[in-house]
Amino acid sequence: MGFGISTCKLLAMMTLRNMREHGVHSLAIRCGALWCNHEAILDVSTYADDLTVPSFGPRMVCTICGAIGADARPNWNERAPACLFGAPQ
Predict the structure, then answer these.
(1) What percentage of the chain carries pLDDT values higher than 90?
(2) Cα pseudo-dihedral 32, 34, 38, 44, rounded to 10
(3) Domain extents in the chain
């Protein structure tokens, strides 16, 4: 009674095109080193639409500790209302 590929719904990875359609044009990158956790924002507006968001992670090199590999996710904070960040309404 295991789960085979035919019984599981496969999820597609988010592409930059899909991310842009949702109003996000940058990635939130977090260093993969357990001791570092450095965070940065990467503008990906010049990259091709068909690239997947997770494909950026293994290519990242931390500017603080030099570790190769990171967690790459859409920077959803771009879509947050300004009032969440203390700006006047």
Answers:
(1) 70
(2) 10
(3) 16-76
